[in-house]
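To whoever is on call:

I kicked off a structure prediction for a single chain this morning and the downstream step that reads the tokens threw a length-mismatch warning. I double-checked the sequence; it's 287 residues and nothing unusual in it as far as I can see. Pasting both halves so you can look.
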Amino acid sequence: MTTEIDAARGHALTNVSLAERAWRIRRLAVRMGEVQGQGYVGQALGVADLLAVSYFHALRYRPEDPLWEGRDRFLLSIGHYAIALYAALIEAGIIPEDELETYGTDDSRLPMSGMAAYTPGMEITGGSLGHGLPIAIGMALGLKRKASTSFIYNLMSDGELGEGSTWEAAMSAGHHRLDNLIALVDFNDQQADGHSRQVLSAEPVTDKFRAFGWHVQRVNGNDIEALRAAFDTARELDEPRPRVIICDTTMCKGVPFLEAREITHFIRVEPDEWQLALDALDEGKPA
């Protein structure tokens, strides 16, 4: 029997809460980071709630058939967030959990930067920032021509809002009225050269997207109920225009001693701190 995760019916596989899904995604990401002694775990901890709502509330897919034509497409524009997406794909049953022990090793299906050729459920090869949204436009247009009811989700970073290609794509999406496109912006105010607002501010970001014809929502990206409501609004909106959800997130969310550090783009975790991070997550496990 085919198992289909369909947003229209809700996620009917289990009674596991979205909060617990997010907790599991965080834990899986930390375990992968421990394998290599490094990884973008700060970002993974920050977007875990967003990924939980994406994969266990909104997205339509078949775990045993990642290339099912009727699926919603989830694009990871920010390829260095791969550790976060792998955790979600493991939790969704698309990748076996025992593969997390191969993270970043030779011949692994879980390279440290996401590549579509390697990993089931990875729709695009991300990396050079600013490419995801243009690719999403092409996919959305293609699905329109097929009369498909599938959605394209594109997860991007606030740092990508400094790329000209992102705004060219935003203008194109508005022009073509791509109501099957939902952009998700992880706004953690951190990029390689410092705080995003200081490097190149995108504000007022909501006004900018609206000026290009988008339906815009801005929410606390670590508030699961706010995310759920925003996703529902984006999917159910009866207007011929693209949708964007700007998600203000906290780096290292769920591990207080990491949250308390001076946040940088790449969080360094000492060898003895991986278990401490898992212990902190376990202490905060949802009831």
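Update from on-call: the warning came from a stale cache, not from the record. Cleared it. Sanity check on the structure: The chain is about 40% helix and 10% strand.
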